[in-house]
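Researcher: Sequence recovery benchmark, item below. Answer with residues only.
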């Protein structure tokens, strides 16, 4: 539950990989979620930001989400909107590393841990990826297990595989 936001605006759009909800604080994009229905996304949004006030979507909100979806659907690098990423110091460090992973590239949880000079922190990196509040834009989908398999993904392995396929990255077939 987030308590340090005051007003959140949001918008929802459809993409080939699911429904997408983008939420914005006054500082920027603070939440981007993928789901199978608008109701599911709204329920998760209201639970996550239960102490916040919600405002009507703005033209800017719709435009930012449209650019994100267009980039993913067109298999192009994403534009980086203003972000309002909030988390622990370690999470912030992991998310910064995720933003450095180039479009069409992947890395392992261990590689990120080593980049942070904490080579034994692979599981902590995985937990920070799972806590990433901004799907796609902060590209935790580009992080794989050291053996090259998908690992986990908060929005489902099929979605992770679809996003990587759109970037031209080989992914094994998954059952998730």
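Model:
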């Amino acid at each position: 539950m987030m308590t340090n936001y005051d007003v959140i605006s949001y918008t929802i759009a459809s993409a080939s990989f699911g429904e997408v909800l983008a939420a914005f604080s006054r500082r920027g994009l603070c939440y981007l979620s993928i789901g199978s229905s608008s109701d599911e996304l709204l329920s998760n949004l209201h639970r996550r930001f239960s102490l916040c006030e919600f405002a009507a979507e703005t033209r800017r909100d719709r435009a930012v989400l449209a650019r994100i979806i267009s980039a993913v659907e067109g298999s192009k690098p994403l534009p980086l909107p203003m972000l309002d990423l909030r988390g622990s110091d370690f999470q912030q460090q992991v998310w910064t590393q995720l933003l450095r992973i180039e479009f069409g590239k992947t890395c392992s949880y261990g590689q990120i841990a080593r980049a942070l000079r904490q080579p034994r922190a692979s599981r902590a990196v995985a937990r920070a990826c799972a806590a990433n509040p901004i799907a796609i834009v902060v590209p935790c989908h580009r992080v794989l297990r050291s053996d090259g398999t998908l690992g986990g993904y908060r929005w489902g392995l099929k979605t992770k595989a679809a996003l990587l396929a759109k970037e031209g990255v080989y992914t094994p077939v998954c059952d998730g």
